[in-house]
User: Which sequence fits this backbone?
């Protein structure tokens, strides 16, 4: 290593890739591998780190090359970090005085500040090079004296991913980092255009990594301290390894089973192994094979997992107008099958549940569309089925997709807002109570925000936010038991629940105690055992998780 290179993570969020903390995208690691292969020592900085200490921008002049990865094509709400804005990206490009500066990632498709706006494709001011295509392949081509454009070559990506795996130790959240793993790129429906709004078909038809290639990367990440993984960089995990040109390929459960077994073998003490995208249209068209594939996932993953369904709408007219992948009945059947396979619980937490994504502003949308969306969710509730979460976003159309010119942006803004409010009030809260009942134990929560109420999440796919009525240091790791619910979060207490040590503000959160009784019960402490506590309070849903340590006794 004879020269320093800097990778700036502006964070990415695409239909098939998440790289916002606590996630680290595969782009970062493969780019690091390219830099290592070309004799550079890569240093990793996040956009949040640069925001906190702008002096770091001046240090970029000492690097021989600066590579920034950025771009959001499916905007969301984030707790762990805020993706770089176009203004910030351009400021970095102008102020970085390194001999070479390069920008890559989904930002190459265009930029919009939020959903509901068209993403404009433009040159990024200040950067010498825009990396087109897979960033690592494009960077390698450029450093070899070729063009700054690359194509998928998984044999090379496997090598670069292993070489770049040590970069994770430089992540500010390490070791509480989820490594997003690429299993495929491209869309099986690209030949028929794909969904009107999606950027994944722009990568072409699917290319699949080998089981051996993925396992090799996992092993390298594991040796460098990674314990949290998600098979997330693909549009439909059920299609993994299927090959061919079928629009809805028939799943191969044997390959999915082999994939999970190989990841487990490469990382024997992993703490998280989750998934992301599942096409509900695949499940509806291949029920038997999909069921077997889902069972293979449940056998190999860790619980609390989420299969993200790109439903987009419950309006058949909008499905047709936008070439979407599943009609409402297809989605409902996929929810049923996923519940049958993944609805069983481990310590009160379901193994694998569907998550629903709605996109508003698509072509053909009317006010009736929103009523159909609400009716669909009401049907799910009444059926007793479980859904982990509902994501609602406004369309952000990109050049090269049909939705760029054909959409209904700006026509139903008021109805969008009332729909979102309706879902939060009438669906999210009752569904949370169903998915996370009182007494459910959330393992390995990591505190992200400290305060009189601290906020913590597990590492994994769409983790539930837990408010803990105690002041806990950031990065504290704990188990907690669910005692109450908000709109999109739960209230939880450290588990086991130390009755004699809890402050009154936390004691009152125990079901059956409440604010009025908490002070009176606190005055009777210490309780020697559960029997004495039950005599004063009665039974609670979390009785098996209560402990009665003597005052001043250290926690185990």
Assistant:
């Amino acid at each position: 290593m004879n020269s320093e290179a800097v990778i700036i993570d502006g964070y990415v969020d695409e239909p098939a890739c998440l790289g916002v903390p606590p996630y680290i995208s595969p782009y970062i690691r493969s780019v690091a591998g390219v830099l290592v292969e070309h004799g550079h020592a890569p240093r990793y900085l996040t956009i949040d780190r640069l925001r906190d200490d702008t002096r770091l921008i001046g240090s970029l002049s000492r690097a021989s090359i600066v590579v920034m990865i950025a771009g959001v094509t499916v905007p969301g709400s984030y707790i762990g970090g805020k993706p770089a804005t176009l203004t910030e990206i351009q400021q970095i490009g102008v102020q970085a005085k390194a001999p070479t500066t390069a920008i890559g990632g989904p930002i190459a498709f265009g930029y919009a500040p939020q959903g509901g706006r068209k993403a404009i494709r433009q040159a990024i001011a200040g950067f010498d090079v825009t990396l087109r295509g897979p960033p690592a392949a494009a960077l390698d081509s450029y450093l070899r004296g070729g063009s700054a454009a690359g194509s998928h070559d998984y044999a090379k990506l496997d090598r670069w991913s292993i070489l770049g795996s040590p970069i994770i130790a430089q992540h500010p959240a390490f070791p509480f980092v989820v490594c997003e793993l690429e299993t495929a790129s491209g869309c099986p429906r690209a030949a028929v255009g794909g969904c009107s709004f999606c950027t994944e078909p722009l990568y072409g038809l699917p290319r699949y990594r080998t089981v051996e290639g993925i396992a090799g990367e996992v092993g390298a990440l594991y040796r460098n301290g990674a314990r949290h993984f998600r098979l997330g960089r693909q549009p439909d995990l059920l299609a993994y390894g299927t090959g061919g040109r079928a629009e809805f390929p028939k799943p191969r459960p044997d390959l999915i089973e082999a994939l999970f077994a190989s990841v487990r073998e490469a990382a024997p003490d992993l703490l998280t192994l989750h998934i992301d995208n599942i096409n509900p249209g695949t499940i509806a068209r291949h029920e038997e094979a999909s069921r077997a594939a889902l069972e293979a996932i449940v056998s190999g993953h860790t619980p609390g997992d989420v299969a993200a369904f790109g439903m987009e709408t419950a309006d058949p007219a909008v499905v047709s107008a936008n070439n979407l992948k599943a009609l409402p009945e297809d989605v409902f059947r996929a929810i049923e099958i996923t519940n049958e396979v993944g609805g069983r619980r481990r310590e009160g937490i379901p193994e694998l549940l569907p998550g629903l994504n709605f996109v508003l502003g698509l072509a053909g949308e009317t006010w009736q569309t929103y009523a159909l969306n609400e009716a669909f969710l009401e049907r799910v509730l009444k059926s007793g089925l479980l859904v982990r979460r509902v994501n609602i976003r406004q369309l952000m159309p990109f050049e090269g997709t049909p939705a760029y010119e054909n959409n209904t942006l700006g026509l139903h803004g008021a109805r969008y807002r009332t729909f979102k409010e309706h879902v939060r009030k009438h669906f999210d809260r009752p569904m949370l109570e169903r998915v996370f009942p009182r007494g459910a134990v959330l393992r390995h929560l990591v505190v992200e925000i400290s305060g009189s109420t601290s906020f913590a999440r597990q590492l994994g796919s769409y983790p539930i936010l837990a408010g803990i009525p105690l002041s806990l240091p950031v990065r504290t790791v704990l188990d907690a038991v669910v005692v109450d619910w908000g709109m999109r979060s739960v209230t939880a207490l450290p588990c086991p629940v130390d009755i004699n040590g809890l402050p009154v503000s936390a004691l009152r959160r125990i079901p059956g105690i409440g604010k009025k009784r908490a002070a009176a019960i606190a005055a009777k402490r210490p309780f020697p055992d559960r029997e004495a506590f039950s005599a004063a309070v009665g039974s609670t849903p979390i009785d098996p998780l209560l402990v009665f340590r003597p005052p001043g006794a250290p926690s185990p």
